[in-house]
Amino acid sequence: MLSVAAFPEGGIARAPGGSLPWLLTLLSMALLPLDAKLGSSSVGIFLMLWLGYAVAWPTHAVVALRRQTLLWLFPAVALLSTLWSIAPDESLRHGLQLCLTTAIAILMARSITKADFLAALLCSLLPQILLGMVAGGRQVTETGALAAIGFFASKNMFAQDISLMLFASVGVLANRNQPAVLRAAAVVGLVSTPFLLFSARSIGALVTAGPCVLVMLILLSLTALPRRYRPLAIFCSVTALCIIGLLVVAAVLAEREAILGLLGKGSGLTGRDILWYRADFLISQHPTLGVGYQAFWIQGNLDAEGLWRAEHIPGRSGFHFHSFFYETVIELGYVGFALVTTQFLIIVGTIIVWGLREPSTESAFFCAVAVFYLLRSPVEVDFIAPFGLTPLLLPAGWLYARMARGH
């Protein structure tokens, strides 16, 4: 019988099914970002693939899912919110979806190595993004500029996956053990990223991707230093990053209007000022427990209908408050926000500590991902979605960090 000790690295050689878990990971990362185009079929295929794997090797699945209490905190809160939700059916459905995604993220990380995880991410995102740039759609910004959205629902989603492709490209390219063809693909991803990010005209991705790459490069440079010099190098690097960050912020504020105009945005940052103003009032209506997980943005909810109308969303779906704080407090109240934020910060902190203690191409990648989502949290809601790459990447990074320490 398998035991927890049987997967110290979650290695592909130790997981049943040979290369099948890697292939399933590749397909999952390719399918989930396409739900805007493929609809529920992409999510359905994703779930069925991993359900089939778990059914084929149930012992492996059961052992992999054991002792991961932290990762189940948010799904538990989401499911509990069904009890007070204004749309209990929606909260139950999305809560169950979040549970399944969390289980798959755990199984994924316990079935393939860290290096294989990066390779799968790069192989899934690179062709999808490049093809989307050529044959995908465009979105008109509030100033009339055209922004590339690829095969995604919005420019922000497109830009998010471009950023993730950038981090994966750096990680794969820096790993000499990766196959030559993968490293060549990483060069393509690395070279094309600046043009792709600007084409998406997402200020959030442009502002956050650069510092995250710097974090990766700093961590990778630590591998060449003896351990006794690393604390000093980390201190100097953090100090330099803070100084650079302050200078960049000062420069951006000084030329704010010009930069926003170049990226096709107005001073309201695509309606965020209206959303956040209204969100303050909505929070006051259900401050403790919120309206229920994923229960606000549903057709028939008058508050949601009003915001869709104000933001010119004719489809009346696929929208959010562009803020982790506002979205979480409105759905789960201050109680839920405290619990979910605790989980989020523990995951991010564990990954960063792993990167500082054991710098490598993989730990540097997951640190970049963790810092990326941390920096985006004031203006995006990546962490609380039931499907997508975020619910896979952050739990996987936390698991790899714990496995690196022997847990």
N→C terminal distance = 19 Å
Individual helix count: 17
Alpha-carbon Rg, integer: 21 Å
Shape: globular
Main sheet? 2 strands, antiparallel
Q: Tell me the β content.
A: under 5%
Average pLDDT confidence is: 86
Structural class: mainly alpha
Please mark out the parts with pLDDT under 50 across 5 or more consecutive residues, or reply none: 1-13
Instruction: Kindly state the number of beta strands.
Output: 2
At a glance:
The protein is mainly α and 407 residues long.
Structure description:
This protein has 407 residues and is mostly helical. The protein has one domain. The chain is built from 17 helices and two strands. The chain has helices at 20-31, 35-38, 40-56, 58-65, 73-80, 88-109, 114-135, 155-174, 180-200, 203-222, 230-254, 256-262, 272-285, 302-310, 324-357, 361-376, 390-404; strands at residues 137-140, 146-150. It has a two-stranded antiparallel sheet with strand order 1-2. A hairpin with a 5-residue loop joins strand 1 (137-140) and strand 2 (146-150). The longest helix has 34 residues, at 324-357. It is globular, with a radius of gyration of 21 Å. The two termini are 19 Å apart. Mean pLDDT is 86; it is low at 1-13.
